[in-house]
UniProtKB/TrEMBL annotation:
One of its GO terms (cellular component) is proton-transporting ATP synthase complex. This is F-ATPase gamma subunit. Keywords: ATP synthesis, CF(1), Hydrogen ion transport, Ion transport, Membrane, Transport. Gene3D superfamilies: ATP synthase, gamma subunit, helix hairpin domain. It holds the Pfam family ATP-synt. One of its GO terms (molecular function) is proton-transporting ATP synthase activity, rotational mechanism. It is a peripheral membrane protein. Belongs to the ATPase gamma chain family. InterPro entries: ATP_synth_F1_ATPase_gsu, ATP_synth_F1_gsu, ATP_synth_F1_gsu_CS. It comes from the Eukaryota. It is found in: Membrane. The keyword Membrane applies.
Amino acid sequence: MYEYYVATAFYHAMLNNFASETSSRMNAMENASKNAGEMLDKLTLEYNKVRQAKITVELCEIISGASAV
């Protein structure tokens, strides 16, 4: 009976270890996905700011050229 108890305790410890490892991996992947989403949002915002600045400069050049004529 003691051997069965030891084997069961060992098996239980292995299951706990597996569950803990799986949970840690899931949390790591969730955090990585969240960080990637935040980075994408920041890069999109930066891209849009640069694009808008370029459009504004081009419009100013067009208006300046039209008023010079």
